[in-house]
Design a protein that fits this description.
Blueprint: E1 10-14, H1 19-35, E2 38-45, H2 58-81, E3 87-93, H3 96-103, E4 109-113, H4 123-135, E5 140-143, E6 154-157, H5 164-178, E7 182-188, H6 192-200, H7 205-224, E8 232-238, H8 241-248, E9 254-258, H9 272-280, E10 285-288, H10 291-300
Parallel strand pairs: 1-2, 1-4, 2-3, 4-5, 6-7, 6-9, 7-8, 9-10
Antiparallel strand pairs: 5-10
Length: about 300
């Protein structure tokens, strides 16, 4: 089917000709089909160096012809993955991160691969995904994992912040639309000094885990009322949130985490947890920025 584009009824995918980007196209095409949206393939052609002499225009034509070949191949891949999904294309000279950021203003989702054209781990992650996670006006998916598990659960990180409700709502929606269960992971570790004091007065950590699990379950119940068909499993664990999320996302179809600037610098880089899972998660990662930050960025754009 071909869907007419309405407000935020488009899944945008960044293309750079790499195998990782081809995987992102496959994932984005499937997501567009699942949501009845249009797929928009976006490629940023490399600008020529300032001192490059291209009087005949041959260098620019060569870069453009290469871009067209990549896009044509991506369209074929999308058609094989999700026949009938409407596809649009945008090719423009400039920065990939800047182009995708502009596209995010009218998109439901922006999807990128986790490796760049050169094959170096983190190449796209460093220059595009990190920038988008701090500046995009919609959620961002970084497609990780050589072979994503479509029938696995959706995993979501749960913390105590008020902005986490927005993340949980989206995680429930993702599990519902995929017809799968939701695994909620809350990781915590008390400061060393607090732990020593607690142990000296006989505090049992398992009892605190039970209290935390009850509080997390209450928060999840509030979101679950809007998605009654989603089965939820709660895990309260000790240790690094990033490490535990990576562990629990083995075999997952999607990992959902909140993303906000580190060290109080909003809109610049994602926090330490989201940045770590972007580098190590075995499945696609969906980054959700707080609504207030998205609204702030929209006003600046």
């Amino acid at each position: 089917m071909t869907v007419l584009i309405g407000h935020r009824n488009t899944v945008v995918v960044g293309l750079d000709g790499s195998e990782s980007a081809r995987g992102a196209v496959r994932w984005a095409a499937g997501e567009a089909a699942r949501r009845g949206a249009c797929l928009r393939i976006v490629h940023a052609e490399l600008p020529l160096p300032m001192d490059a002499l291209d009087l005949s225009g041959s260098a620019r034509r060569a870069l453009h012809d290469e871009a067209v070949r990549w896009v044509e191949s991506a369209i074929e891949t999308a058609g094989e993955t999700a026949p009938g999904v409407g596809v649009q294309v945008r090719i423009q000279v400039g920065s990939a991160a800047a182009l995708l950021e502009r596209e995010s203003g009218s998109a439901a989702l922006v999807v990128v691969g986790s490796r760049g054209l050169g094959g170096f781990a983190g190449l796209v992650l460093g220059s595009v995904a990190v920038t988008l996670s701090g500046r995009a006006l919609c959620p961002v998916v970084v497609v990780r994992g050589d072979d994503p598990t479509p029938d696995g659960p959706v995993v979501v990180g749960v913390n105590g912040g008020p902005e986490n409700r927005h993340v949980l709502d989206r995680a429930f929606e993702e599990a519902e639309v995929r017809g799968t269960r939701l695994v909620a992971v809350h990781a915590w570790q008390p400061p060393l000094r607090t732990a020593r004091i607690a142990e000296s007065v006989g505090i049992v950590w398992s009892e605190l885990d039970t209290v935390r699990e009850a509080l997390i379950s209450q928060r999840l119940d509030a979101c679950g009322d809007r998605h009654p068909g989603v089965e939820v499993t709660v895990h309260v664990v000790h240790g690094s949130a990033a490490r535990r999320l990576v562990e629990h996302s083995a075999g997952a179809c999607l990992l959902v985490v909140g993303a906000r600037g580190a060290s109080g610098i909003r809109g610049v880089v994602p926090g330490s947890t989201s940045q770590a899972v972007l580098r190590h998660a075995p499945c696609p990662v969906l980054l959700i920025r707080p609504l207030a930050e998205q609204a702030e960025r929209a006003q600046q754009s």
